[in-house]
């Protein structure tokens, strides 16, 4: 019985951690009001993560549509402190809510994605420039980003 419970906990724990990271990382304003780089073709396609899946398609030359476990986002590149981020705007709510992701390419078939957390970046800030300053000031500090989640290309 203890082995079964421990086994279930080990399977559910990554999902719970990611849900906690995602729900704690919604910001009222985008990291950049407009895209700061065009769509990167290497991000397009279907991806698998330990907790589910993502599909990334082109919306136009500068925006993506990202479907993550059924939730739809519009996404674009933001560049802060010399680092590339994706700003995601949730398209399913009445009020605009954003997530900021730092993506690190590990190989052609794998990227590690980390959410920007609210410990160093104020979630209720409505000025993108203030958010950018907070991310830049927090770069390199362990509380800025959540644990990296590996995404593996499926196609």
Topology of this protein?
Layout: H1 2-23, E1 45-49, E2 52-58, E3 64-68, E4 71-80, E5 83-90, E6 98-107, E7 110-115, H2 128-138, E8 149-153
Antiparallel strand pairs: 1-2, 1-8, 2-3, 3-4, 4-5, 5-6, 6-7, 7-8
State the CATH topology: Lipocalin
Structural Rg: 16 Å
Strand fraction: 35-45%
The CATH architecture: Beta Barrel
Q: Give the H and E element order.
A: HEEEEEEEHE
As a percent range, the share of helical residues equals 10-25%
Poorly predicted runs are: 1-24
- The span between the termini is 39 Å
The protein's oligomeric status is single chain
Strand order across the biggest sheet?
Answer: 1-2-3-4-5-6-7-8
For the record, the count of structural domains works out to 1
Average pLDDT for all residues? 86
Major sheet characteristics: 8 strands, antiparallel, barrel
**Which structural class fits the helix and strand makeup?**
alpha+beta
CATH class: Mainly Beta
Strands, total number: 8
Number of helices: 2
Shape: globular
